[in-house]
């Protein structure tokens, strides 16, 4: 039985807790023995209180310690661990492996997904990107990851940095564009609901086509008349700047602007 401890209680931590709890119900060889949270009540709905501690000094001995805290806090939290030569990993997409304290063996257990509290996800579909300092530790990480996910990858720190930047473009920036679209609809008394089938179809197309093949619209067609009409319509300077930047990027198709 592989003993796991999670350090943290935010979005990623809570979804990992749920994933490990679900795997235990299925009789897997994973035992989530303890979770550290500064506020025990924040995760009391996920597991028994006797498995939650608010004191890092009381962490039990485990095979794997997963630090799931904010990126800025990872080095400090890893340096506060009182034990040595155990496998400690973080869950960040942008923090390198060597940010972890040298007293313990280092690794990364990065689930690449957008997480929101109280919004369930199917962890089996979530890619988990792994990195470690040695092959033995990687084998352990791979064993644990494959219990909760069907998509497990060996990704080094530089590759993970690239993935994280790409994820910001396809997730965070795309969602911000949804927000702008929603604002434009609201300002003109149009239900944003009308755009949702288009959003769904756009996302589904790249499952069978490359993003380049799936690209449509006035910028792709070089429809200058429509582009000028849109630019004249946009009274919000920020929206207009984003429209012009993205239009130019599409027209140059990734070439230097």
From TrEMBL:
Span of domain DUF2520: 126-250
Annotated Pyrroline-5-carboxylate reductase catalytic N-terminal domain residues: 3-91
Pfam families assigned to the protein according to its UniProt record, in alphabetical order: DUF2520, F420_oxidored
InterPro entries per UniProt: 6-PGluconate_DH-like_C_sf (IPR008927), DUF2520 (IPR018931), NAD(P)-bd_dom_sf (IPR036291), P5C_Rdtase_cat_N (IPR028939), TM1727-like_C_sf (IPR037108)
Stated name of the protein: Rossmann-like and DUF2520 domain-containing protein
